[in-house]
């Protein structure tokens, strides 16, 4: 490995090596520096933010900004709403996708391939083009301004991706395992609940993590389908912080940092699974 | 072939079929059907033929939005994807810390557009934004600007905010690049090919299918671009950053459902046709 690196350096020459590191560092900066700036500035006083240099550290780290962000804006309620939506939407999406993927992957019937292609073609549909019908549909179900409406919409929007990921995973499970279970007297549903579902845990986890991140971050339909704090999610909530925090800009920045923490934590602990899922889902195109 | 589990298969498929029909097939049909009508959401829709489309394409703001969507598609497909591809090529040769770098470059993809947009709005801020501070600091103080409030720079600023977030495409291309056997490069190395030649003659031809897929995806994302612009400028100033999604949202809020759905249908059909066409040309070229 080490000798290979040396060889490449020689082949790349000085200019090539310079370009390579410039490129790597440029993208590192543009990705991280804004986030670091946001984090540091969220600990400043408003006076410091307005008058001191943008690159300075806070004189005294104002943890109070975070206390204010949490107490002033109804943040705990928004946080709870977001968690409820993300957890239930992920659960619903995974159950529905897993059942469908099981039938398509583990049984032969006339429409297997057609059905899979139709469901997968859903990723090509621009979901924002469907604002009006989604709004009308949820309104007719009396789920406007209700967490149930968001749960339903989020779990449906992500069916194509989840079915694809879970189907891909289930097709790799050896047929013999199921045959053995059938001989032992397993029914159709038991094959799903006792054999395939437990064996698909890794695939379900990947789809679930992606789904959770999507739900946590979604904004457009959270805006369209809710109109009060009752069902407002965190992403929508921080949009309104702007008006609540007119005179307290740095507390608003603190609130933004708080909303980023859950998905960043999930990412830190599960990045292999997330990156793996992304690539499984796209390589075959 | 008749399957003895037919009934159970149907029961297992039922939930996904119901949800998929309700949230994909029915809404698509609904958008296209109502795009030919005048409709405010209360009284019954009234059939008006192609009036909504005629109106849209005669509307200067809509044409501007459509143009902006095309620019978005072009930037994502032909600037962001190549940037991501170069990054994948560099990382695939496993420079020091490449796994860490890969993880960092993907990080913005797990943060919400709302948080990113609010952060960049603060960065672009005219009074105490860090971008103006940076320009002043390096002696380019005369370039300081109200980046999102100025008609001449707002569109470039919202594009700049997104174009360097290459994480998703980078990951997808990198996975494909890592599946090319090392022996190909070793053989080229023995033949005296330098790294650039290796990338051009081995990597790019081998990656063609995945590049076509990512470019197609990027074009689709460009045509449906909505969130970050909506959050940073709302389409302003003076519609300079507007896109079709924002016009659709505005029409919907004003209860002009017919016109709104004509935009939605344009998004679906025009977007699909453009993508199909470009994919066709890319695929054709790669066969030669």
Strand content of chain A is under 5%
Strand segment tally of chain A:
0
Low-confidence stretches of chain B: none
**At the third CATH level, what is the topology name of the largest domain in chain A?**
MetI-like fold
Q: Determine the N-to-C terminus distance of chain A.
A: 32 Å
Global morphology of chain A: globular
Per CATH, the superfamily of chain B is MetI-like
CATH architecture of chain B: Orthogonal Bundle
Q: What is the top-level CATH class of the largest domain in chain A?
A: Mainly Alpha
Largest sheet entry of chain B:
2 strands, antiparallel
Query: Architecture of the largest domain in chain A, according to CATH?
Result: Orthogonal Bundle
CATH topology of chain B: MetI-like fold
Q: Which sequence of SSEs, written as H and E, runs from N to C of chain A?
A: HHHHHHHHHHHHHH
Please state roughly what percent of the residues of chain B sit in beta strands, choosing from under 5%, 5-15%, 15-25%, 25-35%, 35-45% or over 45%: under 5%
Structural class of chain B, by secondary structure, is mainly alpha
CATH top level of chain B is Mainly Alpha
Number of helices of chain A: 14
- How many separate domains of chain B? 1
Topology as H/E string of chain B? HEEHHHHHHHHHHHH
| Computed structural class of chain A | mainly alpha
Features:
heterodimer; A: 285 residues; mainly alpha; MetI-like fold; 2 domains; 14 helices; B: 288 residues; two-stranded antiparallel sheet; globular
């Amino acid at each position: 490995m080490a000798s290979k690196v040396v060889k490449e350096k020689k082949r790349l020459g000085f200019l090539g090596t310079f370009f390579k590191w410039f490129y790597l560092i440029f993208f590192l900066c543009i990705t991280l520096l804004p986030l670091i700036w946001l984090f540091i500035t969220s600990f400043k006083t408003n006076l410091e933010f307005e008058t001191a240099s943008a690159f300075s550290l806070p004189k005294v780290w104002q943890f109070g900004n975070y206390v204010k962000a949490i107490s002033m804006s109804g943040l705990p309620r928004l946080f709870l709403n977001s968690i409820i939506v993300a957890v239930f939407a992920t659960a619903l999406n995974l159950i529905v996708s897993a059942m469908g993927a099981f039938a398509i992957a583990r049984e032969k019937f006339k429409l297997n391939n057609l059905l899979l292609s139709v469901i997968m073609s859903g990723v090509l549909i621009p979901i924002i083009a469907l604002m009006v019908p989604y709004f009308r549909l949820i309104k007719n179900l009396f789920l406007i301004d209700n967490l149930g409406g968001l749960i339903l919409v989020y779990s449906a929007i992500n069916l194509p991706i989840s079915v694809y990921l879970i189907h891909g995973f289930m097709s790799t499970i050896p047929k013999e395992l199921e045959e053995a279970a059938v001989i032992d007297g397993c029914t159709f549903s038991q094959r799903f609940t006792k054999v395939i579902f437990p064996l698909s845990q890794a695939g379900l986890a990947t789809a679930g993590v992606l789904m959770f991140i999507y739900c946590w971050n979604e904004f457009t339909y959270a805006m369209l389908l809710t109109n009060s704090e009752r069902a407002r999610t965190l992403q929508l909530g921080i949009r309104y912080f702007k008006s609540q925090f007119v005179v307290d800009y740095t507390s608003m920045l603190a609130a933004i940092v708080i909303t980023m923490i859950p998905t960043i934590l999930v990412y830190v602990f599960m990045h292999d699974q997330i990156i793996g899922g992304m690539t499984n889902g796209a390589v075959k195109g | 072939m008749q399957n003895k589990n037919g009934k159970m298969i149907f029961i297992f498929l039922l939930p996904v079929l119901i949800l998929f029909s309700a949230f994909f097939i029915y809404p698509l049909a609904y958008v296209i059907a109502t795009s030919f009508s005048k409709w405010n959401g209360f009284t019954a829709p009234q059939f008006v033929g192609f009036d909504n489309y005629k109106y849209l394409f005669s509307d200067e703001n809509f044409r501007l939005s459509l143009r902006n969507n095309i620019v978005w598609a072009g930037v994502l497909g032909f600037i962001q994807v190549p940037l991501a591809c170069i990054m994948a090529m560099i990382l695939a040769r496993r420079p020091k810390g490449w796994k860490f770098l890969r993880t960092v470059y993907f990080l913005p993809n797990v943060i919400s557009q709302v948080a990113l947009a609010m952060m960049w709005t603060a960065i672009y801020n005219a009074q105490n934004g860090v971008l103006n501070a940076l320009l002043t600091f390096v002696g380019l103080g005369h370039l300081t600007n109200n980046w999102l409030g100025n008609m001449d720079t707002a569109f470039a600023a919202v594009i700049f905010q997104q174009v360097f977030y290459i994480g998703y495409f980078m990951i997808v291309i990198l996975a494909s690049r890592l599946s090319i056997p090392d022996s190909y490069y070793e053989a080229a190395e023995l033949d005296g090919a330098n790294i650039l030649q290796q990338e051009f003659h081995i990597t790019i031809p081998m990656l063609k299918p995945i590049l076509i897929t990512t470019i197609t995806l990027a074009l689709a994302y460009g045509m449906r671009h909505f969130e970050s612009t909506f959050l940073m400028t709302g389409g302003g100033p003076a519609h300079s950053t507007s896109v079709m999604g924002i016009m659709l949202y505005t029409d919907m809020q004003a209860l002009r459902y017919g016109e709104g759905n004509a935009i939605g249908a344009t998004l679906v059909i025009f977007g699909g046709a453009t993508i199909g066409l470009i994919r066709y040309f890319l695929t054709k070229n790669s066969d030669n």
